[in-house]
Amino acid sequence: MSSVSRERLVDGYDLLIFDLDGVVYLIDRPIPGAVEAISQLHAEGRKLAYATNNASRRSSEVAALLTGMGIVARTEEVLTSAAATAEVLAERLAPGTPVLVVGAEALRAEVTAAGLVPVGRADDAPEAVVQGYGPQVGWTELAEASVAVRAGALWIATNADRTLPSPRGPLPGNGSLLAVLRTALDRDPDLVVGKPEPTLFHTAAHRVGASRPLVVGDRLDTDIEGAVQAGMDSLLVLTGVSTAADLLAAASTTRPTYVAHDLGGLFDLAGVVRLPSSPEYSAERYTNGWRIAGGDGARQLTGEGSALDALALLCAEAWGGGEPVRGGGEAAREVLREFGLPY
Question: Whole-prediction pTM value?
Fold first, then answer.
């Protein structure tokens, strides 16, 4: 639980796969330091890919958005859940098959590019319903989808993110819209294509022949769980949806390999920490100036040092079945406050 190694984190991997919302930008604003970090990766000749569950933009549009922010990106580096979902539909349906699309224009464009015919009403006899995030999606679209699915149409979702990060805090995502139909239909979609399914990550690695990729994300339930399913190491950055409290409560299937405040942790040894892989209960825990000890509901964090080292120790305690921890000194309480944890 000390620094990850003597080399920078980035030096141990041959491909960096970035989530976008909450990692590189929030909606359309770059996260502080992200442009500089990715520009440095480009300057070093690193292989990069972007894998996003957001189905409201096509890959070319995402690449253009990144380029407009100062991040040079190629269309082939961007993998979207919309494009992946259209590919799945094309594999299952004959060319020219009507598909009811609930989502943004980008999803309709991907369905069209896959040789299928987007429609908007259940009366058009669609053989499938594809549902992705779109800010304009409302009751009318959801009602048509409900009728079509009840009539026997295949129901496929681009992703199931409950929320989207934004400068104003988390906003409803496609998972929230899926919940409306889940309630109305009393069933789940037939297939969810995007993260945490590992398809986007495997595709990114295959395209460039990478053997040791690192997934960088801000969500435990999509980015990190998807990396675990794909058998890839992962870095959680605390710039988006998942918080330190979420990390302490993470199930084994959603635990990252590393955690950092932001993308600067790719280069700064002091800005990233490796998390314990399989902690067990211990009466006392130590790491780099920090200690957790005590019992009977009075476990305390004491000492001083790096906040990330303290967070890694707190993860070992929580994941090892330990009791809640409180600060046993001002330095410890300050760390707990910094991460929004009870102190």
Answer: 0.88
**Angle between helical axes of 81-92 and 105-113 (0-180°, round to 10):** 40
> 105 exposed, middle or buried (CB, 10 Å; 0-12, 13-18, 19+)?
middle
Q: Residue 87 contacts by C-beta under 8 Å, 6 or more apart in sequence?
A: 114
Q: Which CATH number fits domain 84-192: 3.40.50.150, 3.40.50.12280, 3.40.190.10, 3.40.50.1000?
A: 3.40.50.1000
Q: Enumerate the active-site residues.
A: 19, 21
Q: Residue written as tokens 């009507």?
A: 98
Tens-binned pLDDT, residue by residue, of the chain (343 aa): 444 445 899 999 999 999 999 999 998 899 999 999 999 999 999 999 999 998 999 999 999 999 999 999 999 999 999 999 999 999 999 999 999 999 999 999 999 999 999 999 999 999 999 999 999 999 999 999 999 999 999 999 999 999 988 888 889 999 999 999 999 999 999 999 999 999 999 999 999 999 999 999 999 999 999 999 999 999 999 999 999 999 999 999 999 999 999 999 999 999 999 999 988 888 899 999 999 999 767 899 999 999 999 999 999 999 999 888 999 999 999 999 999 999 9
Identify which of 49, 41, 112, 113 has the alpha carbon closest to the alpha carbon of residue 79.
49
Can you tell me whether residue 155 is helix, strand or coil?
strand
Q: Yes or no: say if 116 and 99 are a contact pair by the CB < 8 Å rule.
A: yes
CATH T-level topology, domain 9-53+196-271: Rossmann fold (3.40.50)
Separation of alpha carbons 315 and 287, rounded Å = 12
